[in-house]
Amino acid sequence: MPSQLAAYPESYYTATMNRRLDFPALQGETRADVCVIGGGYTGLSSAIHLAERGYSVVLLEAERIGWGASGRNGGQCSVGQRKGQDDLEEAYGKEEAQRLWDLGVEAVATVRQLIERFNIECDLKRGCLQTALKRSDAAWYRQYAEHMHSHYGFEMRYLEGAELEYFSGTDVFCGGLVEYASAHLHPLNYALGLAEAARSLGVRIFENSRVTGYDRVKPTRVSSREGSVYADYVVLACNGYLERLEPRVAGKIMPLNNFIIATEPLSEEQQRQINPEDMCAYDAKFVVNFWKLTGDGRMLFGGGENYTRRFPSDIKSFVRKRMLPLYPQLAPARIDYGWGGTLAVTMNRMPSFGRLEPDVYYALGFSGHGVQMATLAGKLIAEAVAGTAERFDVMARIPSPTFPGGTLLRWPGLVAGMFYHALKDRIGD
Ligand SMILES: Cc1cc2nc3c(=O)[nH]c(=O)nc-3n(C[C@H](O)[C@H](O)[C@H](O)COP(=O)(O)OP(=O)(O)OC[C@H]3O[C@@H](n4cnc5c(N)ncnc54)[C@H](O)[C@@H]3O)c2cc1C
Fold it and tell me: Which of 17, 190, 241, 348 measures 20 to 30 Å from 41, CA to CA?
């Protein structure tokens, strides 16, 4: 069976996988209470939380567990939602913003609890630094830290001058924010650990089992190339790889590609200089740069996007060009790995949760904030399937507009928008 399985794309993460899990392809017919489609964090967390509630679960993954964004991302597990609380208050009112904040805090706690409970080794560390290149962004950071303290009792420290230089290991930034509630981890080892946990709870996992469609009679028949699952509930957890499987949802997201490199291991002195507190970090650019040290002391740096089906031919140079202006001291460092992945963004950069029929649930479009929110999505879906949808509905009632032009014409609008914001990134102050 393993010989039929697709290979994982080459990356620092696949080179440092700490367990090898090979699951068979689905063949023939089977029955389950719930069929989960997709083996990333959304699908795995749904499967775990459903199995814990006593449901029988089959999970179908088109490629390999963690093959999608969940096995390729920056590993940043940031507290809160993708949008700032000030934006959420303005858009949805103070009470709803508070509910969203509480869920955003619980999301990181859920990741931590799963890691602890199932003994998942995935280089979990704490702390996150945000950095600004423009004075306008730095001014916003200062204001935001005060707002979070006075309205949410959440401590973030505003940084500048020597302190900022110490935390960031460079003198290019003019303002920063640091907090210790966020975390970072090895994303693929986290996904594989979740799969092992799901298996231990009786979830039947199938890889190399791309779902080609499902019907709407009860129980729902979910079909893959060589088999079918009859299930009372379906969970759609395909995110940026959804393609045409569910046209009613596809227009709510825009798949886009993001890229990461990892240098050779740095000396201890270099590591201490670049990132003395071993935190994850990201900047305030619209096309965001994000970085951290790996468990074995490499600089892992992500940045740059494209919106086509193809990745750049030389990902290492594509991303290195974004890293060197921030960390010129890394010019001599060899780049050992470069890879890309596909994520899904929504129009308002908040995830899209919902139900299609009363028994088909979906959560996708985490907009680069899915390590924790996709994990939480699985927990909320399991609650909703079990009959308590209150918390799922806090997420589901966030409006999730369809991209203008739907799946066919969304590209030109997106590309124009991205160029505009990329230009703004380059303009000072
Ligand atoms: C380069 C990169 C960097 C990122 N950095 C961060 C970060 O630092 N922090 C953060 O919070 N988020 C980050 N993200 C986003 C984060 O990785 C995602 O939000 C999260 O992994 C989404 O999980 P998911 O399970 O919904 O989707 P995925 O992990 O993409 O999983 C979807 C799965 O569905 C499967 N699938 C699709 N169609 C079918 C089908 N028809 N049948 C069966 N299976 C199917 C796919 O093969 C895939 O494995 C990043 C993403 C990328 C690409």
Answer: 348
